[in-house]
């Protein structure tokens, strides 16, 4: 006599094979899949600073195809936050204070750009704090382009 109905072990094996062969479909779509990427271009006014100085920063925020993006900027340094917004051409400028009490060392300035429809962009740049200039350090000249901030 021929058996037509599979037993429980055969059914389990078929379900396991099918589940391996068929790709899983996520229950929730991936958030941010349509978000675009931001680019941050920045420069600081000097290569090193002294305690109590101000870091002057200028730069631009653009989209993937170098199109200017209006973004909210956050500058994090030595536990303090400074905020700014880009202009319609994507440019920004900011002044970030340096602590008088933190020890001389190399720190990280974290710059974050937030814009609707774009993935958040974070940039980390080293900032050197020295009490007395080293003979190897260049003279702390502030370029003319930073005189307005």
Describe what you observe in this structure.
The chain has 149 residues and is mainly beta. The chain has a domain at 43-134: Macroglobulin (MG2) domain (Immunoglobulin-like, Sandwich). The protein is built from one helix and eight strands. It has one helix at residues 8-21; strands at 39-44, 48-49, 54-62, 72-77, 80-85, 91-97, 105-114, 121-129. The strands form two sheets. Strands 2-8-7-4-5 form a five-stranded mixed β-sheet, with no helix packed on it. Strands 1-3-6 form a three-stranded antiparallel β-sheet, with no helix packed on it. The radius of gyration is 27 Å and the shape is globular.
Broad structural category: mainly beta
CATH fold topology of the domain at 43-134: Immunoglobulin-like
Main sheet: which strands, in order across? 2-8-7-4-5
Overall spatial form: globular
Given this structure, which CATH class of the domain at 43-134 is correct?
Mainly Beta
Instruction: Give the total of beta strands.
Output: 8
Give the secondary structure arrangement, pairings included.
Layout: H1 8-21, E1 39-44, E2 48-49, E3 54-62, E4 72-77, E5 80-85, E6 91-97, E7 105-114, E8 121-129
Parallel strand pairs: 2-8
Antiparallel strand pairs: 1-3, 3-6, 4-5, 4-7, 7-8
Summarize this entry quickly.
By secondary structure, this protein is mainly β. The chain has 1 helix and 8 strands, in the order H-E-E-E-E-E-E-E-E.
